[in-house]
Amino acid sequence: MTTGPPIDELHFADAPSVDAVPGPQTQALLEKQREIDSSAVAYPEDIPIAFEDGKGATVRDADGNTYIDLFAGIGVLNVGHANPYVLEAVHEQADKFVHTVDFPTEARLELIEKLDEIAPDGLQGQNKVVFGGPTGSDAIEASIKLAKYNTGGDGLIAFRGAYHGATTGAMSVTSNKAFKERYTPLLPDVVHAPYPDPFRQDKSPDEAVNHALEEVQAIVEDPYGGLANPAGIIVEPIQGEGGIVTPPEGFLQGLRDIADDNDVVLVFDEIQSGLGRTGKWWASDWEGVAPDAMTSAKALGGVGFPLSATMYHEDLDTWGSGDHAGTYRGHVVGMRAGIRAIEYIQDHDLLAHARDLGEYIRGRLREAAAETDRLADVRGKGLFIGAEFIDTDGHPDGDLVDAIQQYCFERGVLVWTAGRHGNVLRLLPPLVLTHELAETALDIIVAVIEELTAEATQTV
Ligand SMILES: Cc1ncc(COP(=O)(O)O)c(C=O)c1O
């Protein structure tokens, strides 16, 4: 095997193929889970499914129903489920060595070199990578510690609508109050500035950007801005959980300028938007703006291994030995998987594919939007796609998106939701989704939107 089979050979041939769901085996597993698993379990509340098998951009449940998967384990499976090129290396590595803390292995050093090869201009050739723990939240913690360590400050600027994870530091920079209110006090000096969202803020793109940048500048520079010792600005180049909010051009560069003028560390959280998701390696590549530090996780583990990394400019490499630590500083099998996943994306030209297919999918959604006032905005880049729904009064309509998700599930397409009101249909398919599967999935999604918006309109 050189770089694995072409993308059209990766999937279950019969997808989608669904009987009445959830089937009996799935129901039994869900029931048992309810009895013995934590009350914090969340995903099956949205889609009552129990997975058995996955291939490419398709999955099979415990009853043998097959689905087209447009959520990919929340943006993890960029090269698809069970990608054979990745798995080949996984099996080889797992038989040899799995855990080495941060002793050198070929896999570790190769992955660091591979990440440098795809690093944004401005970090390429002049970065270091720290593997501090397995999840995205761990990478966020590392970036916060890095900013504090290097600046001596402790204040952080984050953004409304942001999601950065579930550990204490990551929750502090996350904006959703309901998510964090039971865990306060968190980090004390965090201020959330507005994120430019022309649609929700009813502003032109320029106005939205200027408004956000003025606020950030005031927080950092105004003597009465409130934040005593700013250390860093942390931002998603496209907000994921917040609703695939795609900032207009100029925002990231404006943040870069403010960070430079004030010697604070600019962190781009590319955990959901990175590794090819947007049709470029990093969402920030669309604007050609480099951060001082960049977090990555999710797709980094190749086929779902928990692995996260924080890349930062070499000038910030001031930590002493052990100043950032953790037992799981890089899972060797996950690292092998990550290298193979990057190679697979490179050799199958999946960045260009993601850009083309993303345009096609957004085009189909925009055609649907032309038929109903309820689909108010379609946005995103590459295969990071959001469609925002409103009710007949123009208010966010999360119930409609929940219904779309359920109807799609019953017809064999898995989609997810996002947005502060849950009213954004979020599509994050594996980058190996074929045009044919995308067409089938969009036929189903568009038919569901038509059916539900017609129904909803009739009932008002
Ligand atoms: C942008 C972003 N940052 C951080 C995280 C946290 O990653 P993890 O859930 O792996 O801790 C997520 C998870 O969804 C995310 O989307």
UniProtKB/TrEMBL annotation:
The record's listing under InterPro entries reads: Aminotrans_3, Aminotrans_3_PPA_site, Class-III_PLP-dep_AT, PyrdxlP-dep_Trfase, PyrdxlP-dep_Trfase_major, PyrdxlP-dep_Trfase_small
Keywords assigned: Aminotransferase, Pyridoxal phosphate, Transferase
Q: Does the keyword Calcium apply?
A: no
- Note one Pfam family from the annotation: Aminotran_3
A single GO molecular-function term is: pyridoxal phosphate binding
Report the cofactors: pyridoxal 5'-phosphate
Q: What is this protein called?
A: Diaminobutyrate aminotransferase apoenzyme
Q: Which PANTHER family match?
A: ACETYLORNITHINE AMINOTRANSFERASE, MITOCHONDRIAL (PTHR11986:SF79), AMINOTRANSFERASE CLASS III (PTHR11986)
Family as reported in the entry's similarity comment: Belongs to the class-III pyridoxal-phosphate-dependent aminotransferase family.
The parts of the chain that form a coiled coil are none
* PROSITE patterns reported for this sequence: AA_TRANSFER_CLASS_3
Question: Which organism does this sequence originate in?
Answer: Natrinema hispanicum
Does the UniProt entry include the keyword Secreted? no
